[in-house]
Write a structure and sequence with these properties.
By secondary structure, the protein is of the alpha/beta class. The protein has 16 helices and 17 strands. The longest helix has 20 residues.
Length: 496
């Protein structure tokens, strides 16, 4: 039996492989039969194939945490690429060197353990966890943290996987500068001709790496794929879900999360974190028109519940309903929002809210139910557009006080007109213990006008305009019960 020289042995390693994998996911299943393939990973695979075949050289992907994105993109994708082209020089970057090194070690060990399948071998003279080359080839992997360097290392493909450790780091001005400096001074200069870049992260803030690169992408070079945990697109506006889901449908989880577990996670993390990390739609740390810290909060109910279930607001000077209707009478249309507000002197309190994608019939039912629940809200303001006009006409004989409102000016202008009342501390929201939905309410206002939805903002603007702004512009004096003379205290007038 003849003995092969090292060079002959190496040559046999690099004969054209007998098998190819159409996608990184197919490779993953062969190397690890326990691999779970989901529609989200199918979409990611297709995008990575486009990168490999030259149809896309700048790819940005955001996916909820723990859904297989890092293993697929920072481990299986490099293995799949090197199997087809062992000359590629790949760099993997993360927020810390140790995290990036972990990806390099996993790929190296996979090649060591499955070299017969991958048709690859590690050069023993360059086999560190964070830096290694393929035997007989110039291809390999180099791993570095954001603070690291790529000096003297030409890069054919760059993968940036989670450049932020956590929210605190994402909020840090110093770290934002570190990430920006890495991109402009380290990454870009090392990219060779035709090099690709793939960024995968959970979103943290509007000005994180993915955010400001999108903001500065004037030529549309970046392909952006955001896969939210819960489909939140608006078909009425022509929006589609990347996975073809219906509005409100949750992600088929690689971790096996059920709908109930998704719902629990949504409550556990809070609206701001949910919108950023799980929906990929972060709102500004400081709101545009409505700042987060402007809102005041009340913890004790301002109402009593009577035996028939109706709610009576004690001591209020005025109670109103404000409705923002959907554009279509389908379950996939805009949200319908109904709010109940009370004025106490110069202060406005949000007492209750219903919100959902409702058909025309469901909307009529919701209006009736909210009117019965809050009988003091004799004035019910309904924006006179979309389904609002039809709702008013259909309920005119069964619900009193329906008042059509013709909106004046744009949404942002109407919100800006009432924002000073919020800034002045005159607007109170219920504590989460009273209203679990209030977190999402705050976040929608914080992201307005750039957020995905504005129905709660529209209803709020309409209510505050009627309660506080319109009387001010008309020169009326708003007198609250606390402004009355002491003589009224013994007048015998009951608040009921």
């Amino acid at each position: 039996m003849s003995v092969l020289s090292p060079w002959e042995a190496a040559a046999r390693w690099f004969d054209p492989p007998e098998r190819r994998w159409a996608t990184p996911g197919e490779l993953a299943r062969d190397l690890d039969p326990t691999t779970v393939q989901t529609p989200a990973l199918d979409l990611i695979d297709a995008a990575l194939v486009d990168v490999a075949e030259g149809r896309c050289d700048r790819l940005m992907i955001s996916v909820p945490p723990q859904e297989g994105k890092s293993v697929r993109i920072s481990r299986r994708f490099p293995e799949w690429l090197l199997n087809s082209n062992p000359e590629l020089r790949l760099a993997i970057v993360s927020y810390a060197h140790a995290v990036a090194r972990r990806h390099g070690r996993s790929i190296r060990d996979d090649i060591t353990n499955h070299g017969h399948l991958l048709n690859l071998a590690i050069n023993p003279s360059t086999s560190a966890q964070h830096e290694w080359e393929l035997l007989g080839r110039q291809g390999g992997v180099y791993c570095v943290g954001i603070r690291g360097s790529l000096t003297s290392r030409p890069v054919d493909g760059l993968i940036i996987d989670d450049p932020y450790k956590d929210g605190e780091q994402a909020d840090s001005d110093a770290w934002r500068e570190t990430v920006r400096d890495f991109w402009t001074e380290v990454a870009i200069p090392r990219l060779g001709p035709g090099a690709f870049v793939v960024i995968v992260q959970t979103r943290w803030r509007v000005d994180d790496l993915s955010g400001w690169l999108q903001e500065e992408d004037l030529t549309g070079r970046w392909r952006v794929i955001n896969i939210p945990a819960q489909a939140d697109h608006d078909p009425a506006k022509g929006e589609v879900d990347p996975l073809g889901r219906e509005p409100g449908e949750y992600l088929l989880s690689a971790r096996g999360r059920t709908v109930e577990e998704w719902e629990t996670k949504k409550l556990e993390v809070g609206s701001r974190t949910w919108n950023a990390l799980y929906q990929g739609r972060p709102s500004p740390a400081e709101g545009g028109i409505f700042q987060r810290e402007w809102w005041r909060e009340y913890r004790d109910p301002r109402w009593v519940v009577r035996d028939d279930g109706s709610h009576l607001v004690v001591g209020a000077d005025e109670v109103v309903c404000s409705w923002d209707m959907a554009f279509k009478s389908t379950d996939s249309s805009d949200f319908v929002v109904g709010q109940v507000w009370a004025r106490f002197g110069l202060q406005a309190y949000l007492l209750d809210q219903v919100r959902g994608r409702m058909s025309f019939v469901e909307t009529r039912k919701a209006v009736k139910e909210l009117a019965a629940k809050w009988p003091q809200a004799t004035a019910k303001y309904v924006e006179d557009k979309a389904n609002g006009t039809a709702v008013i006409n259909s309920l005119a004989k069964s619900v009193s006080g329906l008042i059509p409102v013709e909106p004046e000016g744009g949404k942002a202008a109407r919100a800006s007109a009432v924002a000073p009342f919020v800034e002045a501390g005159q607007v109170f929201l219920p504590a989460p213990s009273l209203a679990p939905w209030v977190g999402a309410y705050r976040e929608e206002h914080a992201s307005f006008p750039r957020g995905g939805h504005d129905d709660q903002v529209d209803a709020t603007s309409q209510a505050l305009n009627r309660l506080l702004l319109a009387p001010l512009l008309a020169g009326d004096t708003l007198v609250g019960s606390e402004d009355l003379d002491d003589d009224w205290d013994d007048s015998g007038i009951s608040p009921y």
